[in-house]
Amino acid sequence: MTRPLLSAFALLSLMLLPNCSVAEEIKATAPLDGKGNAETYKQLMLFGEVFETVRNNYVEPISDEKIIEHAIKGMLTNLDPHSDYMTAKDFDDMKVQTKGEFGGLGIEVTMEEGLVKVVAPIDDTPAFKAGIQAGDLITHLDKKPIMGMTLAEAVDKMRGKVGTEIELTVRREGVTEPLFITIARDVIKIKSVRYRIEGDNVGYIRITTFNQNTYDGLKEAFKAIREKTGDKLQGYVLDLRNNPGGLLDQAIAVSDAFLEQGEIVSTRGRDVGAIKRDNALPGDLAEGLPVVVLINGGSASASEIVSGALQDHHRAVLMGTKSFGKGSVQTVIPTPGGGALRLTTARYFTPSGRSIQAKGIEPDIMVELAKIEKISEIRVGEEDLKGAISNPDQKDSKAAAEPEKKATKETGKKDEPYDPNAPMADKDYQLGRAVDLIHGISLVSREK
């Protein structure tokens, strides 16, 4: 059974292997007539001549394998931005990403001024237990400098066989001497779903990518949120911002988690008559509670399938900015030698028949990313006016207000360390508006 892939960027394209019958089926779809054969042979002769010219005359020696690899890659990348050729190593790396687990240290990293910067250690991983902190700069791996490496090369060196050790040389702000930290690699599971409670009654679920573990992670999030909130739960915010996509079947499963019935997505390939439709099964894991989906320009492909399905079925309110607009499906076809082709084979359509290719999904409520600052104001109320009559429910409204102001001042908290599970609605404007909307829908529902 093939499992198509949906992703905006080649590096984040995550997919399982299709079986060999797919490749045979694709080859059989376009037989050549006599005229076509003659022209094809003519073009292949041209390719052979160019191949020989490059092999014999290029300024430096180059292997036949490398020339063919470049030729195939050029043929695919010139079709569209998402078709490509993967070497055996590229293919293995993609399968590791798709599986959602690998041997490594457990840190999210980026590149800064030629060094690897730790974005965050992943909870309960070797790096977390060894004391690696967000903001750490890794300068050497096993005493070899990182300067000059690409991020991919550095990440590749940090990954490895489970149980093997690697020494990291770390520069940390506030520490004058470099730190030498030895860490044993372990199985790292890519956690594509994170969740927390916003306030005390809104479930927040963020999906960062669609890999093999996504639907299971979503079910775990629903269960944990319900256990923590009980009957107080008012609804969910599903955050798909900057989610580049992933596995099609996981996007369908996530959509199905919120829907009782109806079409989720249809895929249509070269043969216009061959339309594959995927439909929801009974069972809404959100139990009918209001849902707000956050999207932006980084929400692509599989994220757009989920967003489009929930929008078309009026199951969720989409909030944020327009999505990326990738409406194509890639199939991975293994090739001899361990490599694979990633070939665009179909377009997908939302339940209402919309193609969002190069168009994107418009949110129901446009909310740009913004920063809110509190403006100080001098407030004069009725209680401040000379001779104001008293409130019959309070003996002295001014006296009652004074202790409250004092208490607010005395209980003011200092800045606390960053907690990834702490509510963020007060710092994230789009999330704050989503939480407000959940509260509003819940309030109106109760009044009915």
Task: Chart the SSEs and their pairings.
Blueprint: E1 5-7, H1 20-27, H2 34-57, H3 64-77, E2 84-86, H4 88-99, E3 101-104, E4 107-112, E5 115-121, H5 126-130, E6 137-141, E7 144-145, H6 151-158, E8 165-171, E9 179-184, E10 186-189, E11 193-198, E12 202-207, H7 214-229, E13 235-239, E14 245-247, H8 248-258, E15 263-269, E16 275-279, E17 291-295, H9 302-312, E18 317-320, E19 328-334, E20 340-349, E21 365-366, H10 397-410, H11 429-447
Helix pairs in contact: 7-8, 8-9
How would you sum up this structure, described in words?
With 448 residues, this protein is α+β, with helices and mostly antiparallel strands. It folds into two domains: 1-30 and 44-100 and 190-375 and 421-448, Alpha-Beta Complex (2-enoyl-CoA Hydratase, Chain A, domain 1), CATH 3.90.226.10; 102-189, PDZ domain (Pdz3 Domain, Roll), CATH 2.30.42.10. It has helices at 20-27, 34-57, 64-77, 88-99, 126-130, 151-158, 214-229, 248-258, 302-312, 397-410, 429-447; strands at 5-7, 84-86, 101-104, 107-112, 115-121, 137-141, 144-145, 165-171, 179-184, 186-189, 193-198, 202-207, 235-239, 245-247, 263-269, 275-279, 291-295, 317-320, 328-334, 340-349, 365-366. Strands 4, 5, 6, 7, 8 and 9 form a six-stranded antiparallel β-sheet that branches. Strands 11-12-13-17-18-21 form a six-stranded mixed β-sheet, sandwiched between helices. Strands 2, 15, 16, 19 and 20 form a five-stranded antiparallel β-sheet that branches. α7 runs parallel beside α8 and α8 (248-258) runs parallel beside α9.
Offer a quick outline of the entry.
Helix content is 32%, strand content 24%. By secondary structure, the chain is of the alpha+beta class. Mean pLDDT is 85; it is low at 7-30 and 403-420.
